[in-house]
């Protein structure tokens, strides 16, 4: 089922997600609905707070980045095959140079800004079968994971840009909160609640 994506300004996007157990109600359905929602919106990642759930769960599928011709064949193949569910994730280490990349977010449509993140991460998490993993990722995969991980920490990519850039996008953010933005996927805007 395609879920509405929560828009910028909704308090759930600022909550630190709660850890969940393997007995969390309808967990498999939540995960399946999140994948369906993400694909419907042409995203590469989606965190539970973005569908109104303040829990430590996010999903990633980097395949849309795999046809970037600036990348090596090896990088393209890695991105094509990378689809994972992360539950109760903790980033243990961020390493390497910070590098900029133009990021967007399904909860903040029509806003894109350069964000600087570390090139390599070590992350501990459970998969959808509640098997524990500790993995190291770098490049675009690490970046997508860091972006989604921020969501379960109550952080948005707009928190990582300069004050000047925040000022420049203020009107766009206001439009999102007021429900004046019209992405081509289902959204729930804070100003529209209770109407």
TrEMBL record:
Q: What reaction does this catalyse?
A: N-terminal N-formyl-L-methionyl-[peptide] + H2O = N-terminal L-methionyl-[peptide] + formate
Question: What superkingdom heads the lineage?
Answer: Bacteria
GO MF annotation terms: peptide deformylase activity
User: Where Fe cation is bound, by residue?
Assistant: 105, 147, 151
Q: Which cofactor does it need?
A: Fe(2+)
EC number per UniProt: 3.5.1.88
Co-factor: note: Binds 1 Fe(2+) ion.
Active site: residue positions: 148
Going by the UniProt record, its keywords in alphabetical order are: Hydrolase, Iron, Metal-binding, Protein biosynthesis
Pfam families named in the record? Pep_deformylase
Which PANTHER family does the record match to this protein?
PEPTIDE DEFORMYLASE
Q: Which family does it belong to?
A: Belongs to the polypeptide deformylase family.
What task does this protein carry out? Answer: Removes the formyl group from the N-terminal Met of newly synthesized proteins. Requires at least a dipeptide for an efficient rate of reaction. N-terminal L-methionine is a prerequisite for activity but the enzyme has broad specificity at other positions.
UniProt protein name: Peptide deformylase
